[in-house]
């Protein structure tokens, strides 16, 4: 579904991505893990076409994304920090997005809007929302257009435990429909029940891409957080 081949990205002298090759397929829920500054967000932005690699290429359903912007309508993206016009209400932001996507949008998926109980807050302005509520708006937008691929950057940061569970259940439900999800998170306990694959990055390099089962076998640890802690301490 998404294949990155030898992707390299430099910001001046800093190599943020160093020859990264990854294959992601339908039905996988991938956890993208790595220390701060290891290149996770840069990689996600390359997949989204927001950062252009210096070398290497990325295909989405076998088409090179460099020559095809249409593919982005198949991706729901939840950024690490959602930036919205502060004076707009939640309702206006949702309407604006629906308006922009009108031509390509099929049936809308408003399940998260209801589960997060955003219905009762539609009149609130974005600038007045709590951090967690802002996250809920970002998550709802990522799922709204029923995309085949979900790219979620630190989705549970700032969410309360109930909202985290609601989001996890939604991700699992979408996976059962064959969707691909890529999730970055430092809160690994949040990912334990939903992840099928782990991509581990360090200093811009792909250290490994393996199934959760394989990682558990290699480290002898059942919990993702303990398995990754072991990988990280072995690298030091
Ligand atoms: N636009 C940019 N200009 C210059 N340097 C950048 C830019 N974007 C990212 N970087 C640098 O690239 C490196 C990788 O950053 P990136 O945000 O991809 O890391 P990350 O793994 O997502 O980190 P975190 O876990 O802290 O979110 C960092 O050293 C960062 O400072």
UniProtKB/TrEMBL annotation:
Record domain ABC transporter: where: 2-228
Domain of life: Bacteria
Protein keywords: ATP-binding, Nucleotide-binding, Transport
Xref: PROSITE patterns: ABC_TRANSPORTER_2
Pfam families from the UniProt entry: ABC_tran
GO molecular function annotation: ATP binding; ATP hydrolysis activity
InterPro entries with a match to the protein in the record: AAA+_ATPase, ABC_transporter-like_ATP-bd, ABC_Transporter_VariousFunc, P-loop_NTPase
Protein's name according to its UniProt entry: Copper ABC transporter ATP-binding protein
UniProt source species: Niastella populi
């Amino acid at each position: 579904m998404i294949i990155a081949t030898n992707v390299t990205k430099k910001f001046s002298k800093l190599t943020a991505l160093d020859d990264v090759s990854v294959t992601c397929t339908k039905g996988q829920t991938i956890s993208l893990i790595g220390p701060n500054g290891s290149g996770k967000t840069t990689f996600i932005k390359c997949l989204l076409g927001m950062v252009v690699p210096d070398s290497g290429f990325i295909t989405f359903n076998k088409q090179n994304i460099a020559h095809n912007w249409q593919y982005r309508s198949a991706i729901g993206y939840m950024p690490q920090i959602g930036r919205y016009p502060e004076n707009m209400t939640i309702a206006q932001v949702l309407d604006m997005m629906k308006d922009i996507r009108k031509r390509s949008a099929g049936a809308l998926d408003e399940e998260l809007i209801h589960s997060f109980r955003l219905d009762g807050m539609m009149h609130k302005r974005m600038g007045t929302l709590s951090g967690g509520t802002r996250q809920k708006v970002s998550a709802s937008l990522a799922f709204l257009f029923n995309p085949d691929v979900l790219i979620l950057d630190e989705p549970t940061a700032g969410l309360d435990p109930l909202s985290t569970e609601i989001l996890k259940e939604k991700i699992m439900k979408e996976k059962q429909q064959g969707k691909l999800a890529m999730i970055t998170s430092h809160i690994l306990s949040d990912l334990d029940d939903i992840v099928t694959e782990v991509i581990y990055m360090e200093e811009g390099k792909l250290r490994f891409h393996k199934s959760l089962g394989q990682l558990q076998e290699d480290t002898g640890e059942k919990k993702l957080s303990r398995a990754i802690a072991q990988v990280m301490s072995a690298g030091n």
